[in-house]
Amino acid sequence: MRGGVLLFVVLAAAFISSGEGLSCYQCFNLRGVTPDRLPPGFNFGAGCETGSLSDSFRAPCDSAEDACVSMEMKVNDSISLIVRECVLLSVAGSSGCSKPEGSLQGVIWQMIKAVEPLLFSPTFLPQNPPADSTMDLCTCTGDDCNAAFAVKAGPLFVFVAIVTGIMASMV
Predict the structure, then answer these.
(1) Would the pLDDT of 64 be above 70?
(2) Containing domain of residue 132, as a range?
(3) CB of 29 within 8 A of CB of 43?
(4) What are phi and psi of 143, to 5 degrees?
(5) Which pLDDT belongs to residue 166?
(6) What does the alpha-carbon distance between residue 70 and residue 144 come to, in Å, rounded to a whole number?
(7) Runs of H (alpha helix) within 19-154
(8) How many separate domains does the chain show?
(9) What DSSP character marks residue 23?
(10) Cβ(117)–Cβ(123) under 8 Å?
């Protein structure tokens, strides 16, 4: 049961923090499909798309948080999962982007699959990540995680930062 709750928490990145810190595009967006059910606290829409981030998704982070984490996954060039959340840079490790491969991408995919029944009926994502799916994990210290990054961040640090940021925003 605990594992199921943690899986849901990891993807519940749309819970908005309050405060006067860094401004971050905090959102959860599954682009390319329309959900049958919309869980409380989730934001779906065009505002979170790469290259067209809308101010309606911009929200202030808590004052202690000094970084914004972005996770983007593209499946079959038609569906994109985008999660953005405020975090502490010390937890994230460093600013930059990385492309998780192999087992880490598989773990994140299984988390998405675990909450898919909460969002869609019937479910439609394949059991395993398609060979042509891509994923980017980024951490930035500016207002916009859509910018290009030069420094690489370790995917494990970024993944921990996503979990930590989401859990912190829920308490």
Answers:
(1) yes
(2) 2-170
(3) yes
(4) -75, -15
(5) 46
(6) 9
(7) 89-92, 102-119
(8) 1
(9) E
(10) yes
